[in-house]
Amino acid sequence: MSTVEAIRTPSSTASRTDPPRQWTTWWNLAVVALPVALLALLGWRHRALTDDGTIFLRTVRQILAGNGPVLNAGERVEANTSTLWQWLLALLGWVFPGDIGFITVVTGLVFTTAGLAVACDATRRLHARRARRPIPLAPAGILVFLALPPFWDFSTAGLDTGLGTLWLAGCWWLFVRDADPARRGTGGLPAAAWYGAGFLVRPELAVVTAAFLTGAWLLRRPSWRRTAAWLAVAGAGSVAYEIFRAGYYGLLTPMPALTKEAGETELGLGWRYGADFAAPYFLSIPLAVLAVAGAVFFRRAGTRDRIVTGTPVVAAALLAAYVVKVGGDYMHARMLLPPLFLALLPVLVVRATRSLATVSLAVTVWAVACIGPWHPSAFTPTAGAAGAKTVVVHTSDIGITGTRNADRTDDWLRAFPELRAAIAQGMAGPQPVLLHLRPGDHGFDSAVPLNPAYADTQVSVPGWYLGVTGAAVPLDQRIVEMWGLANTVGAHLEYPDDWREYWPGHRKLIDDVWLLALELDPRVTEPPPGYPKATAAGLAAARHALSCGDLKELLDSTREPLTVKRFWSNLTGAASRTALRIPRDPIAAEARFC
Length: 594
Fold this sequence. Notes:
Number of strands: 6
Domain Terminal beta-(1->2)-arabinofuranosyltransferase C-terminal: 458-585
Distance between the termini: 102 Å
InterPro entries: AftB_C (IPR058983)
Number of helices: 27
Largest sheet: 4 strands, mixed
Protein name: Flagellar motor control protein ZomB
Transmembrane segments: 26-44, 100-122, 134-152, 158-176, 228-248, 278-298, 307-324, 330-349, 356-374
Keywords: Cell projection, Cilium, Flagellum, Membrane, Transmembrane, Transmembrane helix
Radius of gyration: 27 Å
Low-confidence stretches: 1-19, 381-388
Number of domains: 2
């Protein structure tokens, strides 16, 4: 071979191989980018701020006003479950001007879209690493999210779903990257820190943290010193915040977790919750098809890749089992979206081989069948399972606000003119009052003298819809959260006898007698009109119980000034305080605590 031929041979070889490689690169980019772009479009078309999402905004505004992470100034109550989302919104509200509600909607969509892109890229990398040459990919699991209206809805609901999606995607991307044999011996500490943030995103995501840390250990088999370093880095943020939570709020869990009795078991309701999600969309069809694709990959993979693909699936099973165990949620599909996302991570895209392309085609057919107007039950699934008590929040909120895209706080405020009028009337009155509002339309019924213990408070407002009430009530005035999700006494009440008749998470509606014992001027000894279930004897017993023993300490833990002594008392008593339950009968409560 001549010198000229020797020089030309690589060039000619490159000319034969580069065009297919370039075509494959662009094709794979389109396989990821187009579904992600469509999901962003669908999320934007369904953008809305839910009332539950608006609850975060009250706390964020209190933080920005210098009152701390509280619902009411002067009372330390943790009203939100996602710590990281709450503080991230506070940062965004401090940096960007404008309605924090709209900022929340946009941020949720950006995080969801970015999370899908990151997760797909990780799956692409997994397949590319196992191939000896560039191979085209086909969309698979990502089509499931493209076809599920709940995923569109919660991408902008003002809740932590977008943050959770991005965090899960980051776990997957780091896990795939660090599983590369070429990276053996590297530290892994940044990945451990990212995995450890799960508890701060949502407490139940701690099981996902445990799964990924275990998977990383199985891949690397580090020394005990490095293992200890991983655990220290992963747990540092969560432990530090847990110390803050116990000392500041006096509890070991966010108050909504306490109210929802997150440690209880309601398997029957949990199974119905799962069926209510799966049945309207015939979700078993794509899951079965994709399970076959996952099994093919798993069978052909080596030990390391089996650990990689198995870890998110195990995490999904653990998280789904927990959701089913506690009975699910009242929001249709919300709590099962993260485990579904985890389970589909290894098959978001698949190799475009003849057999796996068939898988992609089957999921595409299912997605088209689900996404079209010919399947309206997919958009309003009210009969997914007999006895299921879930709400399609997007549909519900359209009915409440009268707006398809209620993406600003003012959209909610305009929907409750009676509430705003009642607050204005109470603020203009001659004395501090507790408003009595009708639960349905927040119409003003009456007002009674307010407990003078709430200094500098002119009006105390029952929060039936806590989010919009928080937006309407001035930051220096008081909200009485009626469902126990952010009510110091309500959260600790025992379930009522008919608790199964209520939505999950909304079973601790505060009784009239306890509401009056906390809010009514003590000089008024007879229950006023509008509180038919309260009696004079019950009111006296409830007031006495609140002044005794553990109940007095419970109130003091949230209301006394936060001195070093108070912080230490809250910290050391947090476990017993979290376990405290109050009998609904005030006579029984008086006998127990006094």
